[in-house]
Every structure is written in structure tokens, then in C-alpha cells.
Request: fold
Amino acid sequence: MTAPIEERIGGEQPLTPAPIGRTLGVARPAAWRLALASLLGAGTIGAAIGLMGTAAWLISRAAQHPSESTLAVAIVGVQFFGLSRGFFRYGERLVGHDAAFRVLAEQRVRFYRHLERLAPAGLPAFRSGDLLSRVVADVDSLQDLILRVIPPFAIAVLVGTITVGLVWVLLPTAALVLLVALVASATLVPWLTGTLARRDESDQAAIRGELTASVVDLIEGAPELAVYGANDAQLARISSSDRELTKVATAAASTAGIGLGLTTLLAGLAMWGTLMVGIPDVHSGRLAGVWLAVIALVPLAAFELVSGLPAATQTLQRSRRAAARLFAISDAPAPVPEPAITVAPPNRPVDLEIRSLWARYPGAPQPALRGIDLSVPQGKRVAIVGPSGAGKSTLASVLVDFLPIERGCVTLGGISLELLAETDVHSVIGLVGQDAHLFDTSLAENLRIGHRSATDAELSASLERVGLGDWLDELPEGLASEVGQYGARLSGGQRQRVAVARALLAQFPILVLDEPAEHLDLPAARALTDDLLNVTEGRSTILITHRLSGLESVDEVLVIEDGRVVERGTHDELVELGGMYASRWLHELNSGQGTSESLTTHVTGQALVGGTPERSSEAQLRERNRWV
Ligand code: ADP
Reply:
């Protein structure tokens, strides 16, 4: 059964709208452009009011059959206001949208930058579809804030004051009627729509986030959902979110309708009111008859000033909620804060030193690393092995600044990691993860992420180095070949090799390869590991793996268990030791994962020297269960 929407967006429920000041503050960088857009907008409505007033006077005066010269100025006025209105409107749209898009671009970049600092340790609290909705729909809502909230209020105040002042000159009582009607439209009606919007549309952004998240889940998990027959349940979730969103959108439309209706009513009342006070004055001769049409028709045009305000208050409510969702991300503390004072990055070559390193995931009761020591002078290659959950990937996360150091220290070229800016750390240590991401673009573009100005020859050479030379030659479109979403047109092994080629192009002094062969079958995994070890010769490399094949060529192997180094040495030394590593190695050989027959004999001999055959097979069984 599909859980009620309130439960599904439960995490968002307590999110109160962002304060108005902070929400409006988003537009501060575009303040001057917004001011100009508001002035041009004031010109647009001012021209509309001027057009109405001049036309009303012209028609009334023309009824008296005066000489043509008497009407000439008014005719020019009508032409001027009619034409200038279009120009003002064009300018207002141009400047306003320019301001909005600048703010949006800045907000998106800021949002992405913060996301980058949060990932991966700080993001589990957010679903990917929901994040997508925040970065697209919620940031878009800020566009409405800039175009449909701030200028309408500014224009209403400016042009409203001038219009009432001009009518005051003709007939003060009519000006009072207009003032009361305009103020009521600018305050009471928006207050009412704002209140209704707060009540009825409270969850719109959160429901939209839930809907996007469910749709993304459905698309990404389509094969699994189809296999397990769970499509219907997922579709039911989507329908339920969609129904909720429709309900909220209907409520929003009703609120907008109420606002528009009330404004139109007040405009009509203002026109009748000015006529009521104007007609007696015309009878008594205090007001010339030709001005009566002006006084009666100007309010109709003037209401264009306030007709957008109810919608603007509704939009403001929506923007405040969207802003709260964005601020929730931008206020989330980064797992590893940037140092207050950063120092210059180390000169190459860069030695890496890890001393008594302890690390813990935020909120985790137990540390994931407990006192790791490791020296990686330039060019040394180290393998980190151990059962699943031992802390291998955690070490990689600490090295690339995704997770803070709890105790101990890590230095790069003698400089503490904690004193280096994250971008500097990332320019020294490159990480190729288990699921290295390939973008849905060409092979060349994916590779150039590592080195923007790399030539095609350099790209081909890097693919050659990771064993993809023949494959590249066979591709009809070569480097221009599209890799598909997440690299779907490539095999798992090819994807990982492309990711490594990308990292090689980036020329990181230190390369961390985290289970590069994790999702590959055994022969492909072995081939990839062998090629990686060949290609990284002479380059500082930390290879994290739970498979031991090929580790004869690394300088040091660290066996980690429960966050501690339990064994260390070269492959041969560890096999000699007859401990956990040797036992796992033996298991790999016996199950056909090893590399040579002669080694099987050698290691079997070692294992028998280290313990009884019974102990050996028991240990193998235990290891097999844990090292998967
Ligand atoms: P390995 O890479 O050796 O399989 P990890 O380094 O991923 O192991 O995990 C080490 C320990 O940290 C495990 O107990 C795991 O449950 C825990 N852990 C891993 N990632 C997180 C996380 N994001 N939040 C909390 N605990 C985590």
C-alpha cells in the first residue's frame, strides 16, 4: 500500500518558509538591474495610464467639436503613450529576465558547489530526484521572485503615488476614492491571497520534490521494478503524489481567481466612486466636463498596477518555501569544513604520510578507521585489502577530503591535509571509485574532464595505456562516440578503464583506485587489475581491493580489518606469514581466481607449514564468507 504523502515527505514537513528578508536577499546581486527593470515597468504602466487619460480627454473634447489645433497635443500624447508603452515593456522584460537569469545562474553554481562539498558523506539524507527538483524547480521559483514579486510592488508604490497625485490636482475627492481602492487592492487582497496560499499550498515544493524523486526512481530502477513486479506500487506512489500536486495546484488557481476577482471588483467600484464624486462637481462647475472621463477611466488603467499583487504574494509564499528547501542544503554543514586559513599546495613530487589516523562517519557510534599508519613516498604503490566493511573506502574518503580526520594526521608533501583547500587536495589526489561516473556525452568529452586542453592524440594514448587501444580503433566514430547515460554503451570493464584513463590524463601525483574491478567478472577483473598495475608503475598509487590477484607487483600491502591494520608487508612476506592474507590468497587460488599453478603449490605448502590442513580449510571457509 502506498504510504500517505505526508509520511513520504515527512522529512520536509517541519521546513518552515524562509524569512522574507533572506528570501529577497537572494536577488541582492542583481539589485541595480532590478531597479532599472522596475523603472521600465513603471514606464510601461505609466504609459498605459497616460494613454487612458489622454484618450479619455481627447474623446470628450472632440465631442465639443473644437478646432483641430486644440486636439493636436492630445493626439501626439496618445501616439507617444501608445508607442512608448511597447518600448518600455520590451526593455522591462529584457532587463528583468537578464537580472533573473544572472541570479539563477549564481544560485545554481552556489548550490552545486555546496553539494560537491556535502557529497558523498553529507548527502544520504536527500533522495537524488528530490535534489534534482531542488536544483531545477526550486531554483526556478526564485526566478518568479525576481520577475513577479519584487518589481510589481516597487512599481505599484511609485506609479500609484504619481497617479493619485495627478488625479488630486483635478479633483481631490476622486483622488481619495482612487487611493482607498488602490490601497485596499494592494494590501487587503494580497493579504487574503497570501493567507489562503499559506494554508492551501504549504507543501507544493515538497510534493513536487517527492513526485520528481519517485519518477526518477521509477526510470532508474525500471528493470528491477519490472523483474520484481513492483511497477504498480511505484506507479501508485507517483499517481498519489500527482493527485496531491493537482489538488494543491487547483487550490492555487482558486486563490489566484479570488485575488483577480476582488481586484476587478475594486477597480469597478473605484470607477463608480470617482463618477459619484465627479458628477456633482461637474454640475456645480468646479470641474470641467471633459475631465470627468479622465477621472473615471484613469482608475481602470491604474488597477493594472495592483492586479498582479495578489499573485505576487502567492508567488512570494511559494518562493519562500522553495528558498527554505535550498537553504536547507546550503546551510547543511560540510562534513569536512574548508580551513579558515589555507596554505599553498605542496610542490611536486608529493609524498603522502598517514600517522595514527582515526576517522568516524558523522553520528556513527564506532570509528571506521582506528590508528592507520602509512607512508607513500612519490612513486610507491600500495594495496589496501581486507574484508567488506573493513574501512578501505573510508580511507579513500579521508584522503580526498570527503570525511574529516578524527585523530592523527595526514600530510601531503609535509603539509597537513587539514590546512589545504579542498580543490588543492583534489589536484594532488585523484580518486577513481567503484562506480566512476561517465557523462552522457562523447568519449572525448568524458576524458577531457581530466585534462581540458588534451589533444585527441593524448586522449587516444591514454586509452591505449589502459588497454582500450584496439577497442578505440574499432569504434566507427572513434573518440566522438557517445557513451550513453552512465556509460551504458560500454561494458563495465570499459567504463572503469575509461575512468582510469581520465585520471591518468589529469596527472594526479597520487592516484587512489577504489575497487576498480568491483563489478567485473573474474577474468575481466584480473585483466583490469593487471593493466592498472602496469600503467601506474612509478606513480604513487593506492589500490583498494578485496581481490588479491596481481598484488605481487605492489610495494606494500596493508590488510585492514575493523579499521585497523592487521598485517602489512609485500605480497611474498604476507604469504610467508601464513595469516589472514595468505588464507585469502589460498582461497582465491583454489577457487581459480589466482594467477599460476606453481604459486598454488607454493602457497599450499606455506599454509601447511603455518597450520594444520583442517585449520587451513576452516580459515578458508571463514575468509570466503567475509571477503565478498
Ligand atoms: P570497505 O570499503 O572496506 O568495504 P567501508 O570503508 O565502506 O568498508 O566501511 C567501513 C565502515 O564504515 C563500515 O562499518 C560501514 O558500515 C561504515 N560506513 C561506510 N560508509 C558509511 C556512511 N556513509 N555512514 C556511516 N557509516 C558508514
Notes: The two ends are 35 Å apart (CA to CA).
